[in-house]
Design brief:
The chain has nine helices and seven strands. The protein has 238 residues and is of the alpha/beta class. 42% of the residues are buried.
Amino acid sequence: MSVAVVTGVAGGIGASLAGRLAAGGHTVVAVDLADGVHDVVERLSADGHAAIGVQADLTGSSGRSEVLGAAAAVGPIHVLVNNAGITRDARLVKMDEAQFGAVIAVNLGAVYALSVEAVDQMADGGSIVSISSRAYLGNFGQFNYSMSKGGVVGLTRALALELAPRIRVNAIAPGLIETPMALAIPEEIRNRMVEANPMKRMGAPNDIAEAVAWLADGDRSGYVTGHVLVVGGGRSLG
């Protein structure tokens, strides 16, 4: 039985990730700190998919142990998707230590810890896919977020070297995706961002889910590791 652990499922991208991997035949261990994790599992089950929900704080060892215990009850982990993340935006001069630390702990610390702790439970040929962001190149007012997502890129590349050839490790760097976070951006600014994009639209959560599904599938992407796949509609990286 193929097991996929997906974190941060209560958000728009996370729910899409869980649904896509479940449709691909994986038993999904759906993880989130929010109550919405149970809604995601109910929807997956209603569609005839196998899913287990775990409501846990991944910044603590007990939460990660609960997730890995739930996965172990099903079988070896074939896919780990590190999607959980938060924002605490502020200009550097106004950002306090709590805002900085919270983002680093969730977006980078938990990704590192869960990935390392899951290795012994992962099947040969397994795949770790972490969700970074185009913001790793730097975003105004997101010093902590950009730093955390840059850390995910570095972690991905270094971990890929250490775990090859048994486990592949890759990352996705989404651009502007149609989620509640993006829709909270003032409309005028959001419209300018869309106009600057060669595709002239925001991405959909499913765009990310399809990219993750490809990287998770060793038959289709078995020679790809240590890679950061930008899914951003062609927006310049300069």
